[in-house]
């Protein structure tokens, strides 16, 4: 299995489109998706949770940046491989 790691910060529509593409173009069961939301104020986390309930969503209370967010996601990833999707 592959873990797909996505970091979100005030990119609601872009992240939703990205997730839609991942689920549309990837074989079911072959991956997990982890999104770390870096304290967005645009409703990103709520929209992700509502639209993609199978995504493992981490709601950070601060902006950890790209590297910090990926470190959090990698720490909970279950896959043999990690894909940092930016």
List the helices and strands and how they pair.
Layout: E1 2-8, H1 12-25, E2 31-38, H2 44-51, E3 56-60, H3 65-76, E4 81-85
Parallel strand pairs: 1-2, 1-4, 2-3
Helix pairs in contact: 1-2
Provide key terms for this protein.
single chain; about 90 residues; alpha/beta; 4-stranded parallel β-sheet; 3 helices; 4 strands
Q: What this model shows, in words?
A:
- This protein has 86 residues and is of the alpha/beta class.
- The chain is 40% helix and 29% strand.
- The protein is built from 3 helices and 4 strands.
- It has helices spanning 12-25, 44-51, 65-76; strands spanning 2-8, 31-38, 56-60, 81-85.
- The protein has a 4-stranded parallel β-sheet with strand order 3-2-1-4, with helices on both faces.
- Helix 2 (44-51) links the parallel strand 2 and strand 3 (56-60).
- Helix 1 runs parallel beside helix 2.
- The chain is globular and about 30 Å long.
- Please tell me how large the radius of gyration is: 12 Å
Strand order of the largest sheet: 3-2-1-4
Ranges where pLDDT stays below 50 over 5 or more residues in a row are none
- How many strands appear in the DSSP assignment? 4
Reading the helices and strands in chain order gives EHEHEHE
- Major sheet details: 4 strands, parallel
What is the molecular shape? globular
Percent helix = 25-40%
Estimate the strand proportion. Answer: 25-35%
- Count helical runs: 3
Distance between the termini: 19 Å
* Structural category: alpha/beta
Average predicted confidence as pLDDT: 97
Brief description of this entry?
The chain has 86 residues and is an alpha/beta fold. 40% of the residues lie in helices and 29% in strands.
């Amino acid at each position: 299995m592959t873990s797909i790691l996505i970091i979100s910060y005030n990119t609601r529509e872009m992240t939703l489109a990205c997730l839609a593409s991942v689920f549309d173009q990837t074989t079911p069961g072959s991956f997990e998706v982890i999104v770390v939301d870096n304290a967005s104020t645009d409703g990103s986390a709520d929209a992700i949770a509502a639209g993609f309930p199978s995504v493992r969503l981490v709601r950070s209370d601060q902006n950890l940046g790209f590297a910090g967010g990926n470190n959090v996601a990698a720490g909970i990833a279950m896959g043999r491989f990690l894909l940092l999707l930016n």
